[in-house]
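Here's what a typical entry looks like (UDP-glucose 4-epimerase):
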Amino acid sequence: MSNVLVTGGAGYIGSHACKALKAAGFTPVTYDNLVTGWKDSVKFGPFEQGELSDRSRLDAVFAQYQPVAVMHFAALSQVGEAMSEPGRYWRNNVEGSLTLIEAATAAGCLNFVFSSTCATYGEHDNVVLDEGTPQEPLNAYGASKRAVEDILRDFGAAYGLKSVIFRYFNVAGADPEGEVGEHHRPETHLIPVMLEAIDGKRPALTINGTDYDTPDGTCIRDYVHVMDLVDAHVLGLKWLQDGKESRVFNLGTGKGFSVREVIDASGAVTNREVPYSEGPRRAGDATKLVSGSTRAAAELGWTPDRSTMPQMIADAWRWHQNGHYEG
Ligand code: UDP
């Protein structure tokens, strides 16, 4: 069986990726420091606890498992936190990734799938966001991810490292079979925060700004189901194993939803009131982030058919009600 090293495999997206990898016949080896991840979510292959910054530990893991590829999810990923603690983002996301990339290259593991983000694009009025759009991030989260993209390109030129870079739009939903789901502590992402408010686990959702230049004044995002997202990663891995060139792919559906539209959809799916209040803008937020690319569909054959808003909310709601991690 082929091993794939999955950094962040105990986290939200990484744990779903491990499930998809196992279903596709790979053995996912989770490498995670459990700072934001959950040991309970490592269900589909071996677990190695470690830091990205620990080169000797990484070398030992590469030597033990001889992975055919790396899928690199481990990162700090909150826009608000990135604005207030940029140093942590640069150190963890860039320095940590650099150490990992050096270890992979030294071990001769030259296939690398990387979680990047639409936050690398920044604010572009009336521009279709495709893979050629200039990357002008508004926050240290996006900037740190852009820097890792640059490192991957340089290592590609110097050492033949092949990469598939996925620029995610907003990831939502959960495994419909309920084995893994989204669980951040504290939770900051829109849909889970909203479900916690609906369920009385927090007093209300605060809308971060209602004076944006959008039809209803709230930010617009493109939401993609986590199961569709991780399917793309398996396709990206096969792309690399087929010997194809390094490539960047947006992962979004091309449909934008405002915060108010997500609130309305959540109320409809759960048949419950969404308690919310209106607050100020969150620093670092772009007005609108919607993918304008069909590259992943055309070249990878990716079909994000679970990524409808009602389905994403229904799957997240089911997980919210039934799933949990003990720690
Ligand atoms: N958002 C909000 N209230 C919240 C959480 C998020 O209004 O409690 C907004 C946020 O400002 C952004 C959108 O919802 O416009 C999506 O935010 P999220 O943090 O889920 O993802 P991001 O776009 O930062 O990756």
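Residues 190-221+254-322 form a domain with the UDP-galactose 4-epimerase; domain 1 fold (CATH 3.90.25.10).

More examples are in the samples folder.
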